[in-house]
Structures are given as C-alpha cells and as structure tokens.
Amino acid sequence: MKPAEQVTVLKINGDEVSAHADQTILDVARENGIEIPTLCYLENLTEVGGCRLCLVEIKGAAKLQPACVTRVREGMEVATHSSRLDTYRRKILELIFTERNHICSVCVANGNCDLQDMAAALGMDHVTYPYLNPSVPVDLSHELFGIDQNRCILCTRCVRVCAEIEGAHTWDVRNSGINSRVFTDFNEPWGESQTCTNCGKCVNVCPTGALFKKGKAVGERTRQIDFLPYLKTMREELK
Amino acid sequence: MTKTIMIDPVTRIEGHAKITIELDERGEVSDAHFHVTQVRGFEKLCEGRPFQEMPSLMARICGICPVSHLLASATACDALMAVRIPQTALFLRRVMNLAQIVQSHALSFFYLSSPDLLLGMDSNSAERNLIGVLQANPQLARDGIRLRQFGQQIIESLGGKRIHPGWIVPGGVSEPLDVKKRDAILAETPEMLEIAQRTLTWFKTVMSDYHEEIETFANFPSLYMGLVNDEGKLSYYSGKLRIADASGRILVDHHNPEEYSELIGEAVEPWSYLKSAYYIPYGYPEGIYRVGPLARLNVANGARTERADREWREFRQHGVVSSSFHYHYARLIEILYGIERIEQILSHPKILSKHVRADAKPNNFEGVGAAEAPRGTLFHHYKIDEHGLITWVNLIIATGQNNLAMNRGVLQAARRFVHGERIEEGALNRVEAVIRAFDPCLSCSTHAAGQMPLEIQLARADGVVVDRVMRG
C-alpha cells in the first residue's frame, strides 16, 4: 500500500488550492486554470527559469520568484498578476526584442511564434529600450534545417530536448549575458555536427523562427510537439 | 534675391525628389535636373539572409507595387533553385501581376494625373486633386476608384492581403486558386472592361486640348525596352527582352532577361541617388531608353486580346509614339489589356489545379528574375553561397531606366514653359506633370520612404537660387 501523499494547501490570487508537495507553482496554477506567461518552459522538459516571464509575487518574500522552478509550500500566498508583474513582463519582452533582430514580417514563424503571441497577449505594443542591432550569423549548413541566431531568445528548449529526449546533446550554450549563443558540438557549423541525428526535435520545440526547416517561405513554419510526452514516458521506462 | 514660395498640398508623385532649373545670362533655361535625394540600401541589407526570404523582404521596398518585387524576386529564386514552376503557378502569378498593373495604373491615371487632364494644367492648385475630379466629373472619379479596387481585391483574394502578400514564393505560389474566388473575379470583369473602354474614349476627347504638352513632355527620339512573348506581342511576365529604336527598328529581340547586363549599364551622377540606366552598345548618355507603358506598346507587335489589340493598332497608327505625355494613353490601354487577359487566364481549364509549387534546394549560385512592373521592366539579380545565403544583390528598377528620359523631359518642358526669374504656377505644374507622366516610383528606385515633397529651384548662371517652390 502506498503511503498517503502529503497535500499542501496554498493560496493563489486569494483562492485556496491544494497541491502535492513536489509541484511547482506553475504546475498548480495551470491545473487550476490560472495562466502564467512562459517562454522557456515546455512541459516534459526540465525547467530552467531562464526567461523570467513566470515571475510571481510571494507574500513575505522580498524577491519575485519564477513560478516554473519554485516548489509550493504550506500556507504560501502567491499573486500571479499585478501591475508590477505586468510591467516587468512587458519589459522582459522588450529586452528580448531589442537584444537580437526580430523582423516578424519576413520570418518563417510569422503567425506561429510564441514570442509574437506573448507580445500580443501582454500588450507589448512599443519597445522603449534602444535596439542593439547585433550582427549575428545565420547557419544553413545543415541538410534539412537552418538556424537564424537573430531570432534566438536563448530559451534553451533546443538544448534540453536534444539532451533529455533525443539523448544526443548536440546543442549547448556558450559565452554569457548578451553574448550567449546556442551552438552545436564544438562550435562547428551545424551541417558538420558529428552528434546531430537530424531528428528535428529542436526545430519543433523552438518558440520562434530561430530553428526552421529549410525551404519554407515567410509564415510557413509548422510545429509538431505532441511527440514529447510519449518519448518522455518511454525514456523513463527505460530507466 | 532668393525667394521661397510654399505650395500645399503634396504633389502627386510617389517618393522624394526635387527639380533644379538653371538659367543663362539672358534668363533663359540652360539646364534642368531631376534629383532624387534619398537612399534606402535594400541591396545591402539583405546580404546574409536565406534566399527563400527574399520575395517578402524585397516586397517591402514598396507598398504600391509589392507584387512586382515579389514576382521578380521569386523568379530569381526559381532560377537559384533551377526549377521550372508548374504551369498553373505561372498562370496565377500572371494574374496577380496584371491585377497589380491595373490597380497601379488606376492610381497613376485617376488619382494622380486625371486632375491635370480634367481640370487643366493651369487650374486652381487647391482644387486640382481627386476631390476636384469627383466634383467636376463624378463618374470619372468613381471609375478610378472601382478599377483600383478591382485590382487590389484580386491581389487580396489570391494572396490573403492587399499589400505585401506572401503568396508568391520561390517555386510557385503557396496556395492554389479556389473556384469561388475565380468566379467572383470573373463576375466583375465585364463592368471593368466597360470602365476601361469608357475612360479611353474620354481620354481621346481631351487629348486635343494638350497639343503643347504632347509636343514638349519628354517628346524626343529614344530607345524603348520591354518584355514580349514569342510572337513579339505584349508580355508582362516570363517574356523575352526586346529593344526598339525611335523608328521602330528592332535592335535586340528574344534576349534572355537573365543576360540583362549585356545590354544595360548603370551610371551614377553626383546630383542624384537614382542611378541612370543606359543601353551599353550606344554608351552613356547616348544609350537613353524608356521603359513602361509607352515603351511596351512601342516595342510590341500587338496585344493578344481583342479590345487591347484594337486600341494598340490605333495608338500605333503613325508608328512609334515618342511623347511621354502618351504614357497616360498607354496606361489606359494596358488597363484594358490587363482586365481582358485576367479574364482569359482565369478561364483556362488548368487554372484550378492544386499543383502550384515546385521544390528544390539551391542549385545555382546566381539567378535573375524579370517582370514588367507597372512602371517598366524590373530586374532582380541575386548571388548566394553554397548553403543558400545571399551574398550579393542588384536591382534594376523601372524608374532608374527612365531617369535619363525624365531629366531630358524636364529640360524640354522647362525651356518651353519657364521664362525669366519667376516660376508661374502653371509652368511649375507642367514641369511636374512631365515627371508625373512617367509615374516614377522613387521609393522603389532609391528604396526611399515617405511622401514626396517636390521642390523646384531656379538658379541663375552664377549659381544663385533666384526662386524656389516647395510642395509637400
């Protein structure tokens, strides 16, 4: 007989909700129909708390906490929306837009992009920070896929899906801060990677048009991520 | 003494430019220039981009004829992929190009130039606009709006939106034509044909009032260039280049547009960002040639539609037409042709085929695409690296090819209409109207943005500006 699981009770936006002790605030909120914006988070991949869009207010805590990696505690009082959070979230998006060169009108992901959708959902209609306009490369050396670093938001979904689901760990991140770049193997062109299996999982989980199937014109990118839960279950059974 | 006269509203052309007129010691016009003063640099900013992105990137050069750029760009990409696009895709691209020509010509003729033609070159400038036309001849104004709407709606229906549709893609088009959309377009063509024919009839009646303008609006011998089909008839897409001289003698025929650089050179003058194209065998500036509606009707042997062919015969009854005033006339014939041809193509049994796109990796490192844009022959020329990233781009735009002729036309009209150190309103409007006849698109040709304030400067022989007129 399994021991009875401990139930944690907390408040989100003033309403009492119950959760398992090992759940994150994001999990519990979504189970209860409360939407918290995310970009780097993708169900079935490890959470990294990278994009900071899911920051929430916790009563008694001086700092805002990322909901995707913060576990629930008994008696916790969480606010997922406030004018402060709305402002910070819009600023985060503005900073993402200024850091690289996001030109929706000529992008393969136009109309099918998490970043674009998020900007619309959070009302980010202006960018108040100066654009950095960095000169970043496009790599089309892979037979099937391309990477346009101009559109990369460093969510690391590609890194995680490749390491955790495909098991190849072709992708990783080098440098730090605004100089960070995703790269393959020992930083040779993608097409020369010895570890890439050409599976395309990274392309399917990319939230923007940074990773794309070659030969697609503007707005023609399609994504298929239904494979994730099945493959994750299979990997866990193998362990 | 320098004097500035401000004239509002914005004059009726697309882009930014100014005209300078130089006077000799006797106060007579000695030289004139048409200056285009902005640069946008599209040829540079697309370096390093995947070639599949080029059609939509290039379409952003212009909101008036994005379709022409889409078409020339996608054709250059077809060449990079080394594919022959499916026949239905070719038909559909043609329909969108013709719709673009109909709507752009309607804009040029009815919105921008009909005020001059209906109300007169000397009429009150405050009323010399589309609203003035609406008051004086409501039918004419309504016809213009309807025709433009017809063209724009075809573009929207095929491509999903009126401006910058992403539907023309490397290898063909992204979606086949739906039967309902085809039938909706075909239901409108009889009314459009009637409008086009009615406007032509009207234009012929007012033409006799403009003898002086016909005589002096860039009316000189030059070469003409345009695409023609295998029989030498009008073609706006996938034809071959033909160049004819002032007497109608064909100098170049069935020339592959991919080898345009054997024929066309580009010169740069310090006073303008607009490059001047010339016919290489004749050199610069003797190789002056014109493109666009007048040139197309001058190089072709006829049109392959009934009504337009009849009009073409009348237009060319005395041979080659050399006055640029008749760009207007030619534009109306092309509108008629466009509507007839759209009707013809949409009635083809294969037009609803679902097979509208070819796919391939890049197979050539260099590709050229050409199309007849509303203002003349448009060339896109790209080079890519082994992975398909753009390394080099050259665009040859219609307005640049008409640059030498526009400059000479401005000088010709200024000599006739400007005397002494003061520019009369009617004279100013005539000098502008020369440029307007060419319907230049300066945002395309220099890739500049915004509305067009036109400035005319009158300078004495010692360089002192004695009069300056601003619009915009």
Overall SS class of chain A:
alpha+beta
Strand content range of chain B: 15-25%
Kindly state the mean pLDDT of chain A as a whole number? 94
Low-pLDDT ranges of chain A: none
- The level 1 CATH classification of the largest domain in chain A is Alpha Beta
Q: Let me know the average pLDDT of chain B.
A: 87
Report the uncertain regions of chain B. 1-12, 446-452
- Largest sheet composition of chain B: 5 strands, mixed
CATH architecture label name of the largest domain in chain A? 2-Layer Sandwich
Task: Bin the helical content of chain B.
Answer: 40-55%
Taking Cα atoms only, what radius of gyration of chain A do you get, to the nearest Å?
A: 19 Å
The 3D shape of chain B can be described as globular
User: Proportion of β residues of chain A?
Assistant: 15-25%
Q: Using DSSP, what is the number of strands of chain B? A: 16
CATH topology of the largest domain in chain A: Alpha-Beta Plaits
As laid out across the biggest beta sheet of chain A, the strand order is: 2-1-5-3-4
